[in-house]
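Readers outside the structure-tokenisation community will struggle with the description of the input data as it stands. Showing the layout once, in full, would remove most of the difficulty. For illustration, here is how one protein appears when written out as sequence plus structure tokens:
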Amino acid sequence: MAKAVLSSVTLWKGVFSSLMMYIIREQNAEPAGVVIALDRQERGQGETSAVQEVESDIGIPVSAIAHLEDLITFVEEMPEYNKWLKPILAYSEEYGV
């Protein structure tokens, strides 16, 4: 059976874990891992992060190219993007782990 590495801009746990697994298995493949562009480091349904929940639920590793903390550092260091810092920090405070 073929192995598939999934890629996504970010992780949407509910949609991801059901729809993506269905599509992969319909193609007679097994998921081997997930690569996401941005880990928003947000809570899942419980106390763990959405990434940790997907890893646990599906049993495959999830790797991120960048994390929300990287985006925050970038915005802090680039004056032309400072206007985005407050909303990003508010998002992290409300939804983050």
Residues 16 and 71 are 23 Å apart (CA to CA). The chain has a mean pLDDT of 88. The chain has four helices and three strands.
